[in-house]
Amino acid sequence: MSLSKKINSIPVKYFYILSILLIFPALLINLGLLTFNEDEAIRSLVALEMKYSGNLIVPTLNGTYYYFKPPLYNWIILLFYNIFDDVTPWTARFATIVNLLAFTFTIYLVNKKYLDKHKAIIIALVSITCGRIIFWDSMLAYIDISYSWVTYMEIMSIFIFYKKKKYWQLFLVSYLLMSIGFLMKGYTSIAFQGLSLVAFFIWKKDFKRLFSIPNFVGLGLFGLIVGGYYFAYSQYNSIESTFTPLLDQSVRRTAMHKTIDIWQTVRHLFTYPFDNVYHFLPWSLMIILVFSKRSVKAIFKNDFVAFNAIMFLANITVYWVSVEVYPRYILMLAPMIFTVYIYVYDIHFAENSRLVKILHILFLILFVAIFVVSFLPYFEERAWLNDNYIQKTIFLNILILVLTIIYYFRKNNKLIVLVLLILVVRIGYDWFMIPGRRRDDPGYDKVAINIGNKYKNEAIYIYKKSKIDYTASYYIARQRGKITMRKFKDFLPQEYYLIDTSHCLLDTNQFRIVEEFIERESDRTLFVIKPKKVLKD
Hints:
Elements: H1 3-8, H2 12-28, H3 38-53, E1 60-61, E2 64-65, H4 72-84, H5 89-114, H6 117-128, H7 131-134, H8 144-163, H9 167-185, H10 188-203, H11 213-234, H12 240-251, H13 262-279, H14 293-299, H15 303-320, H16 334-351, H17 354-373, H18 389-409, H19 414-440, H20 444-454, E3 460-463, H21 470-480, E4 486-487, E5 496-500, E6 511-518, E7 525-531
Parallel strand pairs: 3-4, 3-5
Antiparallel strand pairs: 1-2, 5-7, 6-7
Helix pairs in contact: 2-19, 3-4, 3-21, 4-5, 5-6, 5-8, 6-16, 8-9, 8-10, 9-10, 9-11, 10-15, 15-16, 17-18, 17-19, 18-19, 20-21
């Protein structure tokens, strides 16, 4: 039997099984190695302060009220802190991994319901291996993957229950999920729900459904859940002070915000589609398949695929007109466009169209390029610092070569081979790039950990309005096992204070400098100081 026949005789289920098995090492190797960035530190520090204060209702940062996000995602991180009895970056990032896997499984279940099993598996695997997720968001303790999972379910529930003519469930479930999303990220959940419902019922020519009793009851459920939370919040702090910062977070990067110039928005309208093609490579290359009349007709012949296309277009518009948005904001929309891509791909593949041939050539070029790049560790001195770098490099060389050969000869199921390639590349990234980034890190976490340990049993505060980055705050609080509060008056000689001289004046006649250290943000210097006498302000 020829090599080609042998390759094509391999049942596709083995490729699926291998892909699923590779997901775990790809996502978990060196997960906790890198220092928290600022966004990660904010989410984790809020959760940490909830743990130390025992107050789950009121989010705080350094003991002051935090208004920019509701608390639900912090509860998730705190849950993982408590399960593992561990408050390290690994635990916070593992929460992301768990929710990402749940998100991926949900994508599979939803698509399996309306498309065949093969398409459902591929759509789920394509979603988890798109560039933005597999090489960025999956390794960080961000809110966005968890929020995207909830929002994806929110939008999908509209179609699922409408198809079954269960209108009460449609509104109650979608508004329940909107409420959960709101308690994670705020007003953006209202936008997703509003745009999705309006676009859906216009498409279905059933706009009057928006004025039905179930819709108003759903709104009431949202009011009851969110209102219940803010009633509990009002027992600790004024709720009026929460809404403006929360709204500002939702509109700060749109043309509605006072800091955004109209020409920034115009420029963004042209560049945004290309930015997304880049961030969601390699699967975004399948966009070339959509640009044909038969593709558009095929999309709207299938109710579920048409729904995904309409929901994607209805919701992407908010971000298309918003400047300085991040690709992670639209992760809930990615599976929808991937559903369209895979559906159209199968049609083009069955017809052996010119576009699908071009796509396969582009993917083959990618295989070859990655195979060539896989030899770099032999020549890169930094790679030699990794343990067993020769064995790891040989393993990658062989595996990528085998996958390239399989892709070239395989007549069917080519996409699953590309999924495997991406997962192998991610493992290589884990082995070489993450340790390299750790070595390049100036050690901000180690510096802050040292401060936390040194002053673990001392009274230490943040001086007045001094700016301390949240990465440093997180590590200091973690080591001390308590919140590092701010203090604005009554400074005592037995206490220590962290001061940032770019925001506060340091009077050396009244304070003695104990030591200084560098924090992550702008490599700014912070000083540990001690009053020479009692100071009222």
